[in-house]
Amino acid sequence: MLENGVPIDQVLAELAERHRMDDPYADRPGMVNMYNTGLDTVEKVATDAFGMYIHVNPLYSSTFPSVYALEKELVRAANDMLHAPNDATGSWTMGGSESIMMATKAARDGAKHITRPNMVLPISAHAAWWKAAHYLGVEARTTTVDPETYKADVAAIKAAVDENTIFVVLSAPQYGQGVIDPIEEIGKFCLEQGIRLNVDACIGGWVLPFAERQGCEIPLWDFRVPGVSSITVDLQKYGYTNKGCSLVLYRTRELRLPQFFAHANWTGYPIVNSTVMSSKPGGLLAAAWSIVKHIGDDGYMHLVEEGLRIRRELEAGVAAIPGLRIMGKPESTLAAITTDPDADEGVDFFLWIDELAKRNWTMQPQLTQPGVPPSIHFTIAKQHGSYMAEFIEVMREALDAARLRDPLIPAERLAEIHALPTDTTFADIVPIVMESFEDGKPSTKTHLVLDALPMPLREMAMLAYFDALT
């Protein structure tokens, strides 16, 4: 790559050619991973703002004071929307995972008298919480969810808390099925126990306030619940901003302070960081601020209204297809669908999603967990409205086609995979994963293999794939 300089037109032409490898965005976006208002002006204001701030580094507050003003305005807007007290505060991070990391660090370092800290969270919490626990040396105590509602089991949460618990994590909503955990009840418990409660609203924090104003029955989940000490909320999802913009919000400055890092005992300049990164691209913050300012309250009200309408259209369509069902009762713009193999017209889940893939519909499978069947996930936005009716019909066609097919992998082979000992080595896992590939790429068979593997080996198999990819 490092060679003599190349003219700009040639550079951009090569980049455009590489970008063609990515999922088709404008023609028919997939049901996950993409957040698009459909407004050209949003992309324009973002790119112009980023260009204006492309060389701005928020690390140097005295040199670039404007970025701190932008950050404070976004934090204040989010806290006001989530009914925070006047002395609430927060920080801009580079994404939901960093917000989660910071909330975990603040809880851990705010309880330094606890030498073996743990956090309690339901299995429906986002995977990034386990990553934060892994990075920061906090034990993650995983609890069950209700098998009908998929909400956190209150009794299980309470039973898992002990004298070493630094905080509890709940979601509004949780990613998998789009339902809101019982935050009021557990918030009261956390307040009584004197431990923090973080609400992960990374994917719902910019939806639920507008849904509530539109008359939706949304249980209390934000700072109106006295036990809620912090909330993580992304702008880069349903705030429709560029990637690289999330917020971690705190009820008080005292709760936030342990999040920070400061160091003066070295030969360079005294340094203080609010988040993991020191240098950060100010253009990301400027672009996000500009998008939020441009869309505004009225724009978000419309986008949420459309997202909820399309989710209801999906629910109604699924209800009319024997053999499919929505999981739980979605309360935001997320949903999950699974097959019912025991129904009169039931079908194997993986055969069904394979038929969807053959029809060029990009899906995100969610694997089996104890008491939770496999499903496909939907992150619904206005962009999906124009073809939801088509997709509902495709789901029906795929189901009919799947009923006529033989299993993707013989039952005997799946049983062998499921029976693999947990001490199976990385080297032994690699060929098992690779045999499921088609044309050198992961396929529906790959998801089926992952689903069949014993839980510890699932992650090893994923690492094997990612190692080969990179």
Automatic annotation (TrEMBL):
Keywords, in A-Z order: Lyase, Pyridoxal phosphate
InterPro entries documented for this protein: GrpII_AminoAcid_Decarb (IPR050477), PyrdxlP-dep_de-COase (IPR002129), PyrdxlP-dep_Trfase (IPR015424), PyrdxlP-dep_Trfase_major (IPR015421), PyrdxlP-dep_Trfase_small (IPR015422)
GO molecular function: aromatic-L-amino-acid decarboxylase activity; pyridoxal phosphate binding
GO BP, sorted A to Z: carboxylic acid metabolic process
Keyword Cytoplasm listed: no
Modified residues (N6-(pyridoxal phosphate)lysine): K237
Cofactor: pyridoxal 5'-phosphate
UniProt key word Lyase: yes
Family (UniProt): Belongs to the group II decarboxylase family. Sphingosine-1-phosphate lyase subfamily.
Name by which UniProt lists this protein: Putative lyase
Organism lineage: Bacteria, Bacillati, Actinomycetota, Actinomycetes, Mycobacteriales
